[in-house]
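User: Assemble these into one structure.

Assistant: Restating your components, then the assembled model:
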Amino acid sequence: MALLEVNHLDVRFALRGGDIQALRDVSFSLDRGERLGIVGESGAGKSVAAFSILNLIAQPGYIAGGDIHFDGQTLSAMSEHQLRQIRGHRISMIFQDPMMTLNPVLSIGEQMVECLRAHRRISHREAREIALDRLKQVQIPSPQKRLDQYPHELSGGMRQRIIIAIALLLDPDIIIADEPTTALDVTIQAEIMALLLELCEQHNVALMLITHDLGVVSQVTQRTLVMYAGRIIEQGPTKEIINDAQHPYTQGLINALPQMADPGQRLNQIRGAMPSLNAIPSGCAFNPRCDFATEHCRHVMPEFVTSGGCQVACHMVREMIEEAQHHA
Amino acid sequence: MPDVTTHKTTNAEASMQPSTETQTLVRIQDLEKRFDLSGSWLEQLQFKEGKLQRHQEFVHAINGVTLEVQKGEALCVVGESGCGKSTVARTVMGLISPSGGEIHYDGQRIDHLPAKAMLPYRRRMQMIFQNPYASLNPRMTIQQTLEEPLRFHQPGLNPSEVGDKVHEVMHAVGINPDWGKRYAHEFSGGQRQRISIARALAVDPEFIVADEPISALDVSIQAQVLNLMMDAQEARGLTYLFITHDLSVVEHFGTRVAVMYLGTVCELATTRELFANPRHPYTQALLSAIPRLEDDRPTHIRLQGEVPTPVNLPSGCVFHGRCPYADQRCRTEKPQLIPTAGGQVACHAVQEGRL
């Protein structure tokens, strides 16, 4: 059984004009030690999907349906008190902006000790030892000194290393990283990603990496989910998705990268923009931007079909598979 | 009028030249910009060793940058945050005044001009900013936003001519001209950036400075906006100074690339040459850090440490503290840009053949 299983998750936001469906029928799983990438543009629902695992969705959002299982327990049925035993302990999170995540009025050491002692009955001295050990693991220069420094004294890259050290404090089973390197420069991004990858492999931690950067996903993850307007539209092994994407949206996303066009030539753009969640088109949500959309696409929501190692929600792909089977 | 005749001769010269590509539009010469950190005069006073002294501290944002933008090209300036690339853009536009050095536009020095004398140049150069949410006035309709530069720079136009021009630029950037009565908040990020581009194009400029114009946009929208900028360049013969941190965009968009580090240009080359054969150790590290689709594992050149603060610049080569090839000379002597096969590089190791 998978370490984490999300089944038919529906998340809504109750607004004055009625509910907005932020996630619709999202199902995926994560194995122990596996690295999963969630890709999509802003507003696709990738962060909501990650946050709902630990029920971190703020009002007016709520989980309207579906269930979440983690290591034999049902997270979606847990009380707030029970969830606190899981959060930061078995499943920890890394957020985009390290300045927002760290408490500016506590030293690095205090924040780390606080987290350790909230979950384990250990002395202050023992907690500090563990904290120091984690800081060494994330290759921070002069770790002893960092324990007594405050977040504002550190650079962006260093802060993100500290966030990773905090995420690793209690030997979690899963780390959920929400755009961990978006706020950083390319050279620092490369270092942080390499570090995260190395530590996850070393400790056999499963990683859920949320990003809009297909390059990062292709380098770090083994499996990828592509989200569009609150739904998963394609999922499968990262290699297959990058090299042989089936869904027209995934293809468009990859082809739109500057490196996919000849220098100086026009880029292969996807026309239009992602719909806002209160005006999702009927049928396949991508149909107004899709070059292959038919009348069927405009009315009927596509179900998942298996193509190679991937699951794809597209009528055209289904028809192509059926045709191939027919000929065979 | 002498002005007219000189203008004519330059035009004649231009037509006589076999290729117009080598014509310099903007020349930046030994540009320097320092930002004062020390506050007012009173705050600068300090007691030191029993004496009252005045103590000043500066951020050295640009330290001797020399660049030439050729007519019709897209010169990209890349570097990490804090390297001074945006400051270069703003100084060229005259939004901030340089602390030293000169800026020449079409043969005329412009950095010390009074506002009135600068006016004709402002029409010829326009800017596109990073954040389309902040750079459009929320209290103006799109029509008003696009009319304003026209009314200001071309007061001779009558209202119907202004209307026609606004219609034309909206059409050119793919915004429905009927949407003129809407406000900026009614548009998505990509549409807003199109409107910013339309505003820049409204006065028919020849030179556009774009400061990270696509960084705030999603991947599929980035492609749309980049295409739009390339179309406009082709249709209107624009020259771009393109500031970005995204090297994959540079590889696609740029004619030439200048790599900046701590306020200095460390390498300048044609895009093809820079990506095929980066010479400066910093350029090499920067290129190796781009997350690419093809490779499985990052083969990233790891740099030691982090970018030092521009308040106390390192002596010698500003990159020496992180450079794996640094030696005694690098620590003491500032490298100058020297010509290479496809451009220029400022590195002692390259010059000495150590690299």
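The interface with chain A takes residues 80-81, 188, 190-191, 218-224, 226-227, 230-231, 245, 247-249, 251-253, 271-272, 285-286, 288-293, 295-298, 300, 302-303, 305-306 of chain B (CB under 8 Å).
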